[in-house]
Amino acid sequence: xxxxxxxxxxxxxxxxxxxxxxxxxxxxxxxxxxxxxxxxxxxxxxxxxxxxxxxxxxxxxxxxxxxxxxxxxxxxxxxxxxxxxxxxxxxxxxxxxxxxxxxxxxxxxxxxxxxxxxxxxxxxxxxxxxxxxxxxxxxxxxxxxxxxxxxxxxxxxxxxxxxxxxxxxxxxxxxxxxxxxxxxxxxxxxxxxxxxxxxxxxxxxxxxxxxxxxxxxxxxxxxxxxxxxxxxxxxxxxxxxxxxxxxxxxxxxxxxxxxxxxxxxxxxxxxxxxxxxxxxxxxxxxxxxxxxxxxxxxxxxxxxxxxxxxxxxxxxxxxxxxxxxxxxxxxxxxxxxxxxxxxxxxxxxxxxxxxxxxxxxxxxxxxxxxxxxxxxxxxxxxxxxxxxxxxxxxxxxxxxxxxxxxxxxxxxxxxxxxxxxxxxxxxxxxxxxxxxxxxxxxxxxxxxxxxxxxxxxxxxxxxxxxxxxxxxxxxxxxxxxxxxxxxxxxxxxxxxxxxxxxxxxxxxxxxxxxxxxxxxxxxxxxxxxxxx
Length: 532
Known about the structure:
Blueprint: E1 4-5, E2 11-13, E3 26-28, E4 48-50, H1 52-62, E5 69-71, E6 77-81, E7 89-96, E8 104-110, E9 113-117, E10 141-144, H2 158-170, E11 176-181, H3 187-197, E12 201-202, H4 205-214, E13 220-221, E14 229-233, H5 239-248, E15 251-256, E16 268-271, H6 279-289, E17 293-296, H7 322-333, H8 338-346, E18 353-356, H9 358-362, H10 366-378, H11 394-401, H12 403-406, E19 433-437, E20 442-444, E21 451-453, E22 457-460, H13 494-505, H14 517-531
Domain DNA repair metallo-beta-lactamase: 245-299
EC number: 3.5.2.6
GO biological process, one term: DNA repair
């Protein structure tokens, strides 16, 4: 992975691991090669800055949402905020990196000084004529593409390498030509070969869409056998495919790369055509800029010693403004807590038990309490009133609510839930309102042998500090529930009321995980027998 977190700034370039991003606030993408997009996917949900071509490829290839992509025009300067109040800003300028379609260098200017991040680039002298680099600016930190930073590696220019490829094809006038490429890059080479040999170049549909976006000459097609030159994935160039291709027609393969690759077949030719700067080009580039320090982008290949004679005196570490520090620190905490919280809140909620604070119940208006008293007269009386007691032992409360039930021992298993569905019944302390959402179960009355539905929900509202609601039958009735109509449907049988109350009063930590409905009833009975 090639990416950096620029120290003492909220800037991250080609770095997509939010877990390790720390205080990064602004994310930039130099180009779309896979070694610079590790960790970037369709789930990305942060503002991302890049060139317009890269923005198009992000949407098409990685399906990154359009709302997070901020396309910045190449060659123009853009002002971006560095805090939440607009006190600190920075200027970023995108410069063509001459590497692949959409690739850019980033020139950052702000409280931290001037930083140039080259990304992958192939140096040309014309880069020094860019307006952003011709104003005599002192580059404090240069993040340099050091892929080919090796004095022993001598590379030709791309024009010279392209000429070698032309000469090789001319030596095989009757052969088909396979050009092994990565998914992005060297489209201009293909155009040059098509015009040189006056033939169509066969591409994949994805690559054809790209060259049409770039506005290249109309020399490309997806039709097989339309031309003798075809661009294929570089992994296809191997011994077995060469045997297969040559069985039908004489074929040569070309790998335009500066990497050291062993040729597995006599007709596989490796040409040192590179989209990365050579060592001599890097020397010329650094000598012209004279930065204070050079930081290699490919960390496994240190190259600082090669440019010591071209560096300017180093400056002190800049102070981070307070507003930027606050912005960076608040953002670094957000992915760990707030961001995860936001994602969880967006998930669909499973209906269950909802606890309301007793303070909210205490704030109910007197009109609501009078309304409950009015409803109480219309409903059949509740067996016994709950009296305020200093001790809230489950057994004592049960005896106060159901004196007729507690005078005799509970016998037999009631067909409260015959299915083997897994259930979870949490319990709430008195003083909290409990809303029991219906799970569409029905019960059989032992008196009428009729099905009794619990309706949309059964609401238990009790506050041991509120005498207006204590013992109130209406507080146990759900809105729209059949239980609220005493004339049409009688209350649950005494046995069912007792069992339901036992469910509410049994502590949740008493039960074992992963129990069925039948074993759950048995555990409830076991718990309450221990209390007797």
